[in-house]
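Something for you to look into today, if you have time. I want to see for myself how the chain folds. Leave the record below and I will have a look.
***
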Amino acid sequence: MTSHHPGDESPSTITEPIVDYESLRTRDDVAFHEQTDVVDEEIVDEVAALADLAGVGITNHDGDLLFRRLTDTCSWKIPVAPVDPEADFATAIAEHVRETIGFAVELDGIEGVWDVRVQTADGEKTASRGFVTFSASTVSGSYDLTAATPQGDPVEDAAWFDELPAGADEIPGTELFVD
């Protein structure tokens, strides 16, 4: 795993609330990725009903990456939180980590934005879902999961991994933190 940011460039800074991931499209310091897939109409409807997501890569002093499982049937993934319309992506993920894992985090930067769009073959129906992925470090400097005290409903499990866990669900941006 990488210790912070795998690229040659520093992550972009967070200068104001991010309530619309599209607003990051024109920033020179933010990597903006677009993907469009042709799918059945039912899939378009499903995607339209989903919230946008904020994710975060947190690496410890050994360079291991934090993964969590919300429930015992959930796949391992980096911390990720749904973002309600008009809510701030940065606040949503920072609160999620504090409430479910027990770390107060400082978001170090925006690592990337993914605009995932789906459409029917005729292009008549479309939907999109945005993912904003941040890098972060703990405010305390401690990465001890046994000492972390979640402020809300805790995750089923959280652990540090030096490689992608078997069966992990890679939300967009996970690959930035994996060697």
